[in-house]
Design a protein that fits this description.
- The protein has 487 residues and is of the alpha+beta class.
- It has three domains: 288 residues, no CATH class; 114 residues, no CATH class; 67 residues, Arc Repressor Mutant, subunit A.
- The chain is built from 15 helices and 17 strands.
- Strands 1, 2, 6, 7, 8, 11, 12, 13, 14 and 15 form a ten-stranded mixed beta sheet that branches.
- Bound molecules: zinc ion (ZN).
- The site of zinc ion (ZN) has 8 residues, from loops.
- The site of zinc ion has 8 residues, from loops.
């Protein structure tokens, strides 16, 4: 039996503000347990929360990047539930009037040749809870409130995704965009980006949706893809055996690579949302929204597509140049001023230059390489003044000092000679010492040409201009041939 898979995601992203969402405590991962807390984030009676303006700004940036409508008046709501790591017994979140509504995320599939629009319901702000730590050694449970009140955005999608690849690409797009905006560090291993995944299956083409199950709090992008695959398989087996899928909340176990039932339907929590009485509605002016819009610039997927179109780069090159912003900028700066094929410029940046930087564990910005020198070196290779191999030596020097590559080539004796007299003398000498070449050439074995050029190169210690040499050797061989024919 064939099924349609329907997937919707709720993605939590911690915002990298200096302080927490409703108090001035430090917003920082780790630290001595319970050292970044105060009476507000611990929910002491009589305290009043204060809104972190920066967090709202960051959330608006995310909303704009993901094409949402920004509500100029937005309200905060209490989401009530009991859990030991939630000292207030409620989270200040948003329900009725979230900050960002609608919108969509465009994901690139099949190496950037296809795109798909994943529609969003909303993006709202909320605060994180504390962290429950299960002590393995003593069997006790500990709570660290350092994370209580850390600002979050929750990105809620419509059920527009339909397989593990799309889920993976969707999460990667969110991560790339959020990193690009500089609003989160997106360290999934530290829990700063987490996904809840809702999945249901229905017979192919059916309108009515099947029963959905939710996989809670998946902490890695690859983990999310694996969890989705497991869940599709699990639900498919249930449906194929004629049973019904039970609505459950699952927890994905990376070690077991399976989804474990954490909660059944009858235990579903009712959050009793109501407007937060301690905080006023937030008013945002159109001017503020416009200013934030201007600060965003070109987004990752748009950049990938543009690099592919404008410079005819393959997807992987465009992706890498997007991911490493400085390299992408340097690529464009060089490609714009040089006549060399852009793919070759990208190859050098992603190849030799990256290799040298990796060896030094240094960023491109710390090297002395300028687009002008780099361009000149590429053009010297192109017009055969230096070989590609010589370029690999010269680039190392260019990364250490701002120096003319031609000067480096001269100093290191890497210039290829274009002295026609010298090249011809060497070619004559080579052909005279190896008569077999001419004989074979006359018999129509033209592939000896390459061998003869190689021989001349050896005599010139690799410094002959191979294009000129090839012309000269060919000319000499043909002259010899016609001379012999006349005789
Ligand atoms: Zn605090």
């Amino acid at each position: 039996m064939e099924f349609d898979v329907v997937i919707g995601l709720e993605v939590h992203v911690e915002l990298k503000t200096e302080s927490k969402m409703y108090c001035s405590c430090k917003n920082e991962f780790g630290g001595v347990a319970n050292s970044h807390c105060c009476e507000i984030c611990l929910g002491m009676p009589g305290t009043l929360p204060n809104i972190n303006k920066k967090a709202i700004e960051y959330a608006i940036k995310a909303g704009l990047a993901f094409n949402c409508q920004i509500n100029t008046t937005t309200k905060l709501d209490r989401k009530n539930y009991f859990y030991p790591d939630l000292p207030k017994s409620y989270q200040i979140s948003q329900s009725e009037q979230p900050l960002c509504v609608g919108g969509f995320i465009e994901i690139l599939l099949e190496n950037g040749t296809k795109s798909k629009r994943i529609n969003l319901v909303q993006i709202h702000v909320e605060e994180d809870s504390g962290k429950t730590i299960y002590g393995d050694a003593d069997g006790k449970t500990y709570i660290d409130f350092n994370r209580s009140g850390v600002p979050l955005i929750e990105i809620v999608s419509k059920p527009d995704l339909c397989d593990a690849t799309e889920v993976k690409t969707y999460l990667e797009t969110i991560k790339n965009t959020v990193l690009w905006l500089g609003i989160s560090d997106c360290k999934m291993q530290e829990g700063s980006m987490r996904a809840d995944i809702n999945i249901s299956l229905k017979p192919k083409g059916a309108i009515k949706l099947g029963t959905r199950c939710e996989i809670k709090n998946v902490g890695s992008i690859n983990g999310a893809a694996r969890a989705v695959e497991c869940e599709i398989k699990r639900q498919k087996e249930i449906l194929e055996s004629g049973r019904k899928v039970e609505q459950v909340t699952l927890k994905y176990s990376d070690e077991a690579n399976e989804n474990i039932v954490a909660r059944r339907k009858d235990e579903v929590v009712e959050y009793r949302y109501f407007v937060e009485p301690d905080l006023p509605a937030i008013e945002i002016s159109n001017e503020e929204i416009e200013a934030l819009k201007l600060s965003i610039g070109e987004l990752p997927n748009a950049k990938i597509s543009r690099l592919m179109d404008e410079y005819e780069l393959p997807y992987t090159d465009a992706y890498l140049l997007m991911e490493e912003r400085e390299k992408g900028r340097f690529f464009e700066e060089t490609a714009k001023i040089s006549n060399v094929e852009p793919k070759k410029v990208a190859n050098w940046i992603l190849g030799d230059i990256s290799r040298i930087l990796n060896k030094q564990s240094a960023p491109l910005s710390s090297s002395k390489l300028t687009a002008q020198n780099f361009k000149k070196m590429l053009e010297m290779i192109e017009n055969n003044s230096i070989s590609n191999t010589a370029g690999k030596t010269i680039i190392e020097t260019l990364m250490e000092q701002d120096i003319d590559p031609e000067l480096v080539a001269k100093q290191k004796g890497l210039l290829q000679t274009s002295d026609l007299k010298l090249l011809e003398d060497v070619a004559r000498e080579a052909l005279a010492e190896n008569k077999q070449i001419s004989e074979l050439f006359e018999k129509g074995k033209t592939n000896v040409l390459g061998f003869a050029v190689g021989d001349c190169m050896k005599r010139l210690k690799g410094k002959g201009n191979p294009v000129l040499l090839k012309d000269i050797v060919l000319k000499l061989l043909e002259e010899g041939k016609s001379r012999n024919e006349k005789n």
